[in-house]
Amino acid sequence: MRMRVAVTWRGRWERVVASATANPVGFFLPFRGLTWAMALLVVLTRSAPEVNLRYEPGLLMYTALQLALGTLYVLLLHPRLARYAGGPTLLRTPSDLVAVGLADILGSLTVVFFSGGWGSPFWHYAVTSLLVPCFLLRPVWGMATAAGLAAWRLQDRWPCRQRS
């Protein structure tokens, strides 16, 4: 007969920490949070040109929501879904995490676009969006994803960007 352990906040926290350390994607999320904090600092101190701060604080709120939802999904919802799907295997790429990562890249590039291009406070945030898909995908697809972001970065067609 199995005894049921009472659910406490400490027990929940221990499960979250265990899933974060077992899932390397959860390890990258605090780093992503630091890049968001760096963007927050740049916006609050008005250290960027005015063209890059035109849509603030809306972009900060959007990226905070994007980061919070991604973190909650990776650390809380994904482990439960994997358990119901038969558990994760080393040979199978978790397609839901790849989809979340690719949607995150798209959302991050949209933020860079609306914040005035790659000179914006959010470019670090956008680059860190590559971590999840590049870590989960096979090396060829990870390199293709990184090359796609680099090609996007190198284009000089941002309509909001100041030209000198």
Write structural notes for this entry.
The chain has 164 residues and is an all-alpha fold. It has one domain. Helices cover 67% and strands 0% of the residues. It contains 7 helices and no strands. Helix 1 crosses helix 2 (24-44), helix 2 (24-44) runs antiparallel to helix 3 and helix 3 runs antiparallel to helix 4 (95-114). It is globular, with a radius of gyration of 18 Å. The chain starts with 8 loop residues before the first helix and ends in a 10-residue tail after the last helix.
List keywords for this structure.
164 residues; mainly alpha
User: Major beta sheet, specifics?
Assistant: none
Secondary structure class reads mainly alpha
Q: What overall form do the CA principal axes indicate?
A: globular
The stretches of 5 or more residues where confidence is low (pLDDT under 50) are: none
Question: How many separate structural domains?
Answer: 1
Mean pLDDT: 76
Q: What count of helical segments does DSSP give?
A: 7
Number of strands: 0
Strand-and-helix sequence, N→C? HHHHHHH
Helix coverage percent: 55-70%
